[in-house]
Write a structure and sequence with these properties.
Layout lengths: L2 H39 L7 E8 L2 E8 L2 E4 L5 E7 L16 E5 L6 H13 L7 E4 L5 E9 L2 E8 L11 E7 L6 H16 L3
Antiparallel strand pairs: 1-2, 3-4, 4-5, 5-9, 6-7, 7-8, 8-9
């Protein structure tokens, strides 16, 4: 066998190895996509709700939340925050970057886009550039809205208040990655979130 034939043989081995490596990567990516699709479009039924007690501006606050959520540290202005925890349900773990959370916020904190919504609502009684909007004429909330912010969806209730600064309004917030929108998981999360809002007493 000549040098040229040897070089061709080596090149073929390299090409075959590269092809196999790419096929393995592609298979792993497909499996991960299937796992994500399974988690987003075939989530388990919500676990029963459990009671939560906390404080909001020194006042007692309580609500019910599905046991699918476990308490976590939350955001800078979180009174209490819960993270959707599918790990204990035997499905794909959600990493920090794709965390799904429900939190009760004492003030807007870093969510500037929500402060903008509150300002618009106060001046016009409605909202533009949001995916959903629901106005409340009575009860504990001003309105509920759904909007996109960067790579996330925010669904939030704004609690009624007599404060002057939009950043001082308290909110109940559901935050999840944009890719969850429109899936069965979003419906589950929304159901759990609305139960929190419905049962919140201060």
């Amino acid at each position: 066998m000549g040098l040229f034939d040897k070089l061709l043989g080596v090149a073929k081995e390299i090409a075959d190895g590269t092809k196999t490596a790419f096929e393995n990567i592609e298979r792993e990516m497909d499996q991960e996509a299937n796992n994500v699709n399974e988690m987003y479009n075939n989530p388990s039924e919500p676990l029963p709700a459990v009671p939560v007690q906390t404080k909001l501006h020194g006042n007692n606050a309580s609500f019910m939340i599905s046991d699918d959520f476990t308490e976590n540290e939350g955001y800078a202005h979180s009174v209490v925050s819960f993270r959707y925890n599918p790990e204990h349900l035997g499905v794909l773990e959600i990493d920090d970057e794709n965390a799904i959370t429900i939190s009760l916020q004492e003030g807007i904190g870093e969510f500037d886009e929500i402060a903008v919504c509150i300002d618009e609502y106060i001046s016009s009684g409605t909202l533009s550039d949001v995916r959903q909007f629901e106005n409340f004429s009575d009860g504990k909330y001003l309105f509920k809205a759904k909007m996109s912010a960067s790579e996330y969806i925010e669904i939030f209730y704004v609690l009624k208040s007599d404060v002057d600064d939009s950043y001082d309004y308290d909110i109940l917030l559901l935050l999840f990655p944009l890719e969850v929108e429109g899936t069965v998981l979003e419906k589950k999360l929304s159901t759990c979130f609305d139960e929190v809002a419905k049962t919140l007493t201060i």
